[in-house]
Write a structure and sequence with these properties.
single chain, about 210 residues, alpha+beta, six-stranded antiparallel sheet, three-stranded antiparallel sheet, 6 helices, about 35% helix, flat
Length: about 210
């Protein structure tokens, strides 16, 4: 009799009772897949952040002044009217832009701010640019052939200096010792390695200097 009533209820379309336990057990079967996918995505994000080279964008505004005297006292009433109607004389923007683009001007800017010298941390996978966070400064450059590119490796062994190599980052060949403030001459270039008192060098780290 009870079975007959249950069958009639099912035939009449009575909804099944809500069971939280059944829903939890249903999704618990996919828990390992959720954990695995979460670990993969987090690992990929960490690797991307760690080994992606950061990109920066800098913008600046420049005011170009005219050398002409547009003052009212020197120009008179006619120039005053022209200045009010037409805005006076304008500076030659094209000439000023050509000055900024000239090789002589750009060379002075690069040399003054050392934009052609880059410092890196040598890693197992990636060589990271350390920008201004380097424990030493290369100064007093003398380059015989400025068209070449020079790369050398530095490793500190103490407070007074360390090792430098122009070929091997593992310092297995062609390396020699140096001290701070001493002049180094090799491969057609000469320079001095000075201490940066604000940053302590890592004795386990290999530093890379690139001049181009």
């Amino acid at each position: 009799m009870e079975n007959q009533l249950q069958q009639e209820d099912n035939l009449q379309g009575n909804p099944k009772k809500f069971s939280l336990r059944e829903i939890i057990l249903k999704y618990l079967a996919y828990l390992p897949l959720f954990l695995l996918s979460t670990a993969i995505f987090i690992g990929a994000a960490v690797i991307y952040i760690r080994y992606t080279v950061p990109k920066f964008k800098a913008t600046a505004n420049m005011l170009v002044k005219s050398n002409d005297d547009n003052s009212i006292s020197a120009s008179g009433n006619n120039d005053f009217i022209n200045s009010a109607l037409f805005g006076g004389k304008r500076a030659n923007i094209d000439n000023e832009l050509e000055k900024l683009r000239s090789n002589t001007f750009l060379s002075r800017v690069v040399e003054k701010n050392h934009f052609n010298i880059r410092y890196f941390n040598e890693g197992n996978i990636k060589r990271s640019d350390i920008y201004t966070n380097h424990p030493f400064v290369i100064e007093d450059w003398e380059i015989k052939d400025s068209s070449n590119k020079y790369i050398f490796y530095i490793k500190f062994t103490g407070d007074k200096g360390g090792l430098i190599s122009f070929k091997s980052k593992t310092f297995t060949k062609d390396f020699f010792a140096f001290t701070y403030d001493s002049t180094i001459v090799s491969k057609g270039i000469s320079f001095t390695i000075n201490r940066n008192n604000n940053i302590t060098p890592d004795l386990k780290q290999v530093y890379v200097v690139e001049w181009k």
